[in-house]
Amino acid sequence: MSTATSHSYLDHLVQSWQKPSTSSWLDQLRANAMDSAGALRMPTTQDEEWRFTDISPLSRLPYPVAQSTFKVQLSDIEHYYLEEASCRLVFVDGQFAPELSNIAHNAGAIIGNLSSLLPTHGDTIARYLGQLAEFENDVFTALNTAFLRDSACIIIPANKSVTTPIHLLFISRQTEVTSYPRCLLIAEAGSHATIIEDYITTEEASYVTNSIVEMNLADSAHINHIRVQRDNQQAFHIGNCTVSLAHASQYHSVSITLGAYISRYNLNVILSGEGAECAADGLVLISERQLADTHTFIDHAQPHGKSRQLHKCIVDSMAHGVFNGKIMVRPHAQLTDSAQLSRNLLLTNKARIDTKPQLEIFADDVKCAHGATVGQLDKEEIFYLKSRGLSDLTARNLLTYAFGGEVIDRIPISSLKRQLEEIVLARTQIS
Amino acid sequence: MINQNSKTLLEVRGLHANVNGIEILKGVDLTVKSGEVHAIMGLNGSGKSTFAKILAGHPAYEVTAGTIIFNNQNLFDLEPEERARAGVFLAFQYPIEIPGVANNQFLRLAYNTVQSQRGKEELDPLEFDDFVREKMKLLEMSPDFLDRSVNEGFSGGEKKRNEILQMALLEPILAILDETDSGLDIDALRIVANGVNQLTNKDNATILVTHYQRLLDYIVPDYVHVMEAGRIIKTSGKELAKELEAHGYDWINADDRGKTAGVRP
């Protein structure tokens, strides 16, 4: 990729940006973000953090922000609705779609889009929005923030337990546009909730998604976060999620990556309070010429923290999976207990995986385990299944399915689990 | 049960096989007729487990010479799954753990595959559940094992029972039990042996590969073969196992070594 291309990508986007008309904190945030975007450049494979992920195809596609709203037929998306989720926020090409959303049964949580909540909760939102998602050094975060028009906002009041999941459904309806989905979660002390962040499309041609999620967990808050990226295979998806964990809070996440031609997911979890706990599991299932890159950063900043991570990639045909799992244990973070496992399954000789566990430990009294495996299906397991009459294909598919099933099983919502199991089954063609 | 008029199910002649380029089997001959129970005994490394795996078609073993006819078919023409569907069953010495595959899903897939091959009716999950629970009673297995991953976290005895459960579901013509008694306490041994005994009939045959005589107290063989250095060196009735137990393998006199055994006199 030439520098010129990358410049022109940013130039296009910067030029298309309209200077905000007001001096509100939000417009100031956008303007600051645009200043950063203007000063940054697109990453290339020369950058350590992007070594294996060449996004030059994206750089050639400075798709504008979706301007008009395209109607979505309920029948096109209804099957993505989850029966357990009593609350649903739907965004089409980054814009809130109230007619498809349902926030009546919020169980005491404050749920809505940015513009509807600003009048009542503006101060709270202003305190958090854009705080975790630092845009000074990340061009995609800067662009998302600069083009921020709407956002899902969820505030779980202190000690409130929202027992049914909150479904955020981000639909790509237009092609050759960029959408900038955004989500802000504020989980007050002792609150519980489950958030599903779900990216789908009704289209088959290319578009770009650049998403930001910020999750703030106060003391003893407990959040389940399930992220499903099922874009089409022409799409580009850059996702950033930053989570801050206060004292004794718990964050459990499962991210499932199925779609996009090129995707990148950055998950940053900062254990900023003592005794915080996080589980960050992932499953990537890709084929053809897909590239899926997952970068996670678990930052143990305080003592007695615990983190668990199981990341799995199933890479078929000529696809390419990347996993970079950095775990930082800062000098102060004694008695940290951390375990990370990256397991990867290559289904063909042309499939490729780059996996890099990265431990940086500056405390001396810690327990940190990590491991990475890259392999093909186990021959003894295949033989065992065949010796019971299963065909070679069925045996391989069953084992592939089982490999992914371990992560899907960790999703606490049975209808979503079923949907994903069906997708994996369809891909592995088990009858 | 020996019946001279019964059908020959397995005919092994001059079987030689290598693993990783090393010759393990050096001319095995064996004839098994329907209704018979054969025990193959021998020390570790004598080749008896290799022989069992070759019958099931394990890809790590390379057959370099010899023939195996199973139920009028050339066994070497059949892939492992085709052998299973044709009625060959190997109970593994070390059953494989398959995390993430539910035991009931696996058992039903295997059962239905073999059923459809035999032109019989396949069962849906509910029907199968009832059916398999009945079979599990035979082995005094808790239905909890259905929901767990295949063999994962099973004790040695539980794995072996799960093997015999598969045998009960697939109703093989030729069952090869590879060291099924190893790692079993006496209660589990009795249950497993009882299960096997209930599955044997005049139309099928069983080959027990074992180290010790103790399994043979429960599953009484019609023939006992002693394997050594890749060949069957002695064949006799069930009393041979007792003699081996009492005197050890060295007891087999030098005259027997070098003779061709395994073939019916």
TrEMBL record, chain A:
GO biological process, any: iron-sulfur cluster assembly
Protein name according to UniProt: Fe-S cluster assembly protein SufD
Database matches in InterPro entries: Fe-S_cluster_assembly_SufBD (IPR055346), SUF_FeS_clus_asmbl_SufBD_core (IPR000825), SUF_FeS_clus_asmbl_SufBD_sf (IPR037284), SUF_FeS_clus_asmbl_SufD (IPR011542), SufBD_N (IPR045595)
Organism: Nitrosomonas communis
Start and end residues of each SUF system FeS cluster assembly SufBD core domain: 171-403
Domain annotation SUF system FeS cluster assembly SufBD N-terminal: ranges: 21-167
Family the entry assigns: Belongs to the iron-sulfur cluster assembly SufBD family.
TrEMBL record, chain B:
SUPFAM superfamilies: P-loop containing nucleoside triphosphate hydrolases (SSF52540)
KW rRNA-binding (keyword) present: no
SMART domains, A to Z: AAA
Molecular function via GO: ATP binding; ATP hydrolysis activity
Superkingdom of source: Bacteria
Pfam family, one: ABC_tran
Chain ranges of the ABC transporter domain: 10-254
Key words of the record: ATP-binding, Cell membrane, Membrane, Nucleotide-binding
PANTHER family for the chain: ABC TRANSPORTER I FAMILY MEMBER 6, CHLOROPLASTIC
Similarity-based family: Belongs to the ABC transporter superfamily. Ycf16 family.
Protein name per UniProt: Fe-S cluster assembly ATP-binding protein
